[in-house]
Amino acid sequence: MAYTELFGNPAHRTFLRRGENLWRVVQGHPRYAYYGTVVSLSDPGEDTAEIMTSLARLQGLGMCFYYPKTGATALLAGLKAKGLRTAQSLYHRGGRAAYEASKTLLNSKTAPENLTISRLDATTPETVIKATVELCQSCGLSAMPGEIMRGSVIPGINLIATDVSGTPVATAASYAMHAPDTPRATEAFWGVLATQKDYRGQGLAARLGALAIVYMWENEGMRAFNTGIKAENLASQAACAKLGVLNTDWVTAFCFDDERLAAQ
User: Fold this and answer.
1) Where do the domains of the chain lie?
2) Which CATH architecture has domain 93-246?
3) CA 85 to chain centre
4) Rounded distance between C-alpha atoms, residue 133 and residue 144, angstroms
5) Are 192 and 136 in contact (CB under 8 A)?
6) Which tens digits make up the pLDDT trace of 156-194?
7) pTM for this structure?
C-alpha cells in the first residue's frame, strides 16, 4: 500500500515517499528501523559511516540509533568530510520504570474536563489528521504520513486531546521501530509531544505520552521507549525524566544530503 496521506511541502512529501520506498526493500532486516519517516540504522558497527552515507544519498537523511557517545565526534567528522551536514541528539530510553511511572501519573492526575482524549485510527476524519499535523508543525515537529498516524501500517498509537470544537490541542505518539522476530522487536519510538500554546502548563503532553507508553506496553508488547532530545533542550529532558525516559550512553547520529532533501 502506497501512502495517500502525505503532508508538508512538496519536498517533504517526496522525502517521506523515499523513506517508504526504501522501507519496502529492507523491511524485516534486523539492522534497520522505520516508523514512518526514513529508514535508519539500528545496529552500528564498522560500516556505520558507509551505511549512513548511503542512506543520506538515497533519502536525504541518514540516521543511526544506539551510537556510543564516545565515538560520535569522530563519526560525525568523517561524515562531514564526505560533504554531508551532520547533527546528533541525546538518546533517551525507558523500560519498565517508564511503564510504572506512566501508570502512576495517570492514576494521580485527571484530565481536564473540557478536553476529550482519543486515538487516531482508520475512522478519523482527514480534517482531524490534517489539524494534528498542523499542531505538530506549529511546535517544530515534522509531518508523518497519515496512515502511520492512524496505526494502520505498523504497530503504534497517536493520541490527541481535542477541545469542545473538536480541534486537536495536544498530541503524543509511539510506534514500533523494528520488524517482528528481530532482536529489537520490542523497541518503540516514543514522542511527538506537542501542545497548542494556550494549553501548555496543564501536563497534557505528559498525560498523552503516558497513555501511549501504557498502551504500547500492554497491547503491543513493547518493552523499551526511545526518543531523541537536543542537548540544549533541558525542559524536554526533565519532562521525559518524570516518565522514566532517561538519558543514555548513546546518541542518535544524523547526516544530511541537503541537495537530495530539497529534491521534489
Assistant:
1) 10-91+252-262, 93-246
2) 3-Layer(aba) Sandwich (3.40)
3) 21
4) 7
5) yes
6) 999 999 999 999 999 999 999 999 999 999 999 999 999
7) 0.96
